[in-house]
Amino acid sequence: RVFPTYHPYPNVALSCVLDYQAIKDQLSEKASSYFFRAIIDSVVFDVGSGYEPRYFIELDSSFHDEAQAQANDQLKDSIFRAANTKLIRIRPLNAKASSVEEFEKLVREVMRQL
Predict the structure, then answer these.
(1) CA distance 3 to 46
(2) Could you tell me if 64 and 70 are in contact, meaning their C-beta atoms sit under 8 angstroms apart?
(3) pTM here?
């Protein structure tokens, strides 16, 4: 409902939407290795432009507080910086607030701030 003319897809392989060859020289060895294992929680594609990816969204729950998840988040952030592409991180203020309406409101607020 937030993107009525776009198609959001969940769990998209990073290697399917970013050009590794264009950024590989800017990546650390760890980031290069992680590039081919990383998944983006949601990619929003613009149907009208031949399914160009427009928004890259990560949904950061409390699992992202763990050390390994934070290390992976830093690698993913470095990959997006190298690609000069915005990665939108969304973290609910209230972890127990999980209704569709509350999530939609949160996404709309984050998108307004871009």
Answers:
(1) 9
(2) yes
(3) 0.85
6, 54 in Cβ contact below 8 A?
Answer: yes
Q: Give me Rg for the CA atoms of the chain.
A: 15
Phi/psi of residue 89, nearest 5 degrees:
-105, 130
Q: What are the backbone angles phi and psi of residue 46, rounded to the nearest 5°?
A: -90, 110
H/E stretch holding 70 reads: helix 67-82
pLDDT category at 94 given cuts 50, 70, 90 is: low
Nearest to 88 by CA among 52, 56, 45: 56
53-90 pLDDT, tens digit per residue, is: 999 999 887 777 788 889 999 999 999 999 999 999 98
